[in-house]
Structures are given as structure tokens and as C-alpha cells.
């Protein structure tokens, strides 16, 4: 390997490591907010703050996952110690891991650790605690491109099986249409090859662009394509004829032929994404 090539590859690997680190921090911040909520709910319902059984359960779950993804048990255990200690600190408990726990006078805590009064309803607060799509984007980009493509191809194969069979997707043969998820900064270029819609590495002739939530609302049939295009939540660029044909197909997708389990999952996912977006915007869903 030439020295320049190695340095270039190292820079790319380091950039990927940076994105994973961003993801770790964002997820820890989300966990901390959820722990604060758990703390408020426990004090409201008179449940003791520290729950060693639950901690044990949390550790057991993560150890099983660590094993599956080949992360050393010791690494997973240290990370969970840190996360649980942070959660306890957020709830006003000083934890000496493995040795006990002491309640702390909230007035003695730094402001960031104090719990705000429990007033607002739980669901929007819970949703707001989750990172918005823009924050999830770095995590998704860590997923190897090949995996992203395979997942998308498998999902499309299930959703579009009927139109592929009855020929209504023939207009896509040899044409390239991109789906862009604006807030996740993801883009896939699709082409019909044989009897499959494939993700290809080529410039698209037309693009359909929208946020993750709007595309999910469309896929979950909670919004129709016409409304979303009219509201400019979806945007069409490039070859108008190809884009419009794709749009019409989206309108006429035989929803009944999509497997029931997938329809339910899409519908629930879309409702959840819509509620999370409304919570982040401070609206009611
Ligand atoms: O599940 C809870 O009750 C939490 O407060 C969260 C958490 C955790 O970090 O997982 C923190 C402290 C409890 O002792 C148990 C679990």
C-alpha cells in the first residue's frame, strides 16, 4: 500500500470514529433525560429511587447484546456503570457503584443535576427526550452503505411486490429515480433491474425529497402524496415526467397487497415520528 493511501484511509476511519463518538454522546444525553423522567415518575408514585433489580436487568440485556456484536463484556459493563451512575446522579442519588447509594439534598446539587418540577404531561416530554432525526443522522451514516442498501431493497421488495408483478413499475426500467431523506442526509438512487428495484451507484434523472417523518407518513399511508407535494413537504426535481409517474404510482400503491405486519409497523412508525416531530416543535400531534 502506498503511504498516501494509508493516510487517506486512516483519515476516513477517524472521521467515522468521530461520528460514532457523536452518536454515543447524543444517546447518553437522551438516556439522561429519560432517567430524569423515570426519577420523577418514581417519586410521584412513591416507588424507591434506586432499583437494583432493574439495574441488573439493564446490565443483563446489554451484556447479551454485547456478546452478539462481539464487544468485550468488560467494555459493556464499564459503559453501563457510567450510564447508570449518570442516571442516578440526574435523579439526585450519589452512587458509589456496587457499594451503595445516598440521597442528596437537591439544593446541594449543581443546577444541571436538579430535577425540574413534574408538571408537563408525560408523552410529549418523553418524545422530546429522543434525539430528532438530524441528531440520528451521524449514527445512520455509520451503518455501512451496503447494509443500508440491502435493508432498503428488502423493504421495497415487500412494499412494491404487487406493482412489480403487474408491470406498473415498468416505467422505472432503465430509469434512475432518487429518494432523498433531507434531515438524515441520505440518498438512494433506484432502478428497476430484472424483477427488483435496486439501489445503484449512479446519478439520478429525477429525485423525490422529503424529511424522514414525511416520507414515513407517506409510506405508512397517514398522508397522501398529493397533500405532501402540495404542502411542499415533498419536493420533486429533475425529469418531471419520470417524477410525476413515480408520484402517481405512490398515489395508487395497492396498500392491501402489502403484508399486514409491515403495514402495521409502517403505520405505527409514522404515527410515532409525527408525534415526536410535533413534540420537538412544541405542537400537539
Ligand atoms: O429504571 C429506572 O428506574 C431508572 O431510574 C433508570 C436506571 C438506569 O440507569 O437504568 C437508574 C437507576 C435505577 O436504579 C434503575 C435504573
TrEMBL record:
<dbReference type="InterPro" id="IPR036263">
    <property type="entry name" value="Chorismate_II_sf"/>
</dbReference>
<dbReference type="GO" id="GO:0006744">
    <property type="term" value="P:ubiquinone biosynthetic process"/>
</dbReference>
<dbReference type="InterPro" id="IPR016830">
    <property type="entry name" value="UbiT"/>
</dbReference>
<dbReference type="InterPro" id="IPR002701">
    <property type="entry name" value="CM_II_prokaryot"/>
</dbReference>
<comment type="pathway">
    <text>Cofactor biosynthesis; ubiquinone biosynthesis.</text>
</comment>
<comment type="function">
    <text>Required for O(2)-independent ubiquinone (coenzyme Q) biosynthesis. Likely functions as an accessory factor.</text>
</comment>
<dbReference type="InterPro" id="IPR036527">
    <property type="entry name" value="SCP2_sterol-bd_dom_sf"/>
</dbReference>
<feature type="domain" description="Chorismate mutase">
    <location>
        <begin position="4"/>
        <end position="95"/>
    </location>
</feature>
<comment type="similarity">
    <text>Belongs to the UbiT family.</text>
</comment>
<protein>
    <recommendedName>
        <fullName>Ubiquinone biosynthesis accessory factor UbiT</fullName>
    </recommendedName>
</protein>
<dbReference type="Pfam" id="PF02036">
    <property type="entry name" value="SCP2"/>
</dbReference>
<keyword id="KW-0831">Ubiquinone biosynthesis</keyword>
<dbReference type="InterPro" id="IPR003033">
    <property type="entry name" value="SCP2_sterol-bd_dom"/>
</dbReference>
<dbReference type="InterPro" id="IPR036979">
    <property type="entry name" value="CM_dom_sf"/>
</dbReference>
<dbReference type="GO" id="GO:0004106">
    <property type="term" value="F:chorismate mutase activity"/>
</dbReference>
<dbReference type="GO" id="GO:0046417">
    <property type="term" value="P:chorismate metabolic process"/>
</dbReference>
<dbReference type="Pfam" id="PF01817">
    <property type="entry name" value="CM_2"/>
</dbReference>
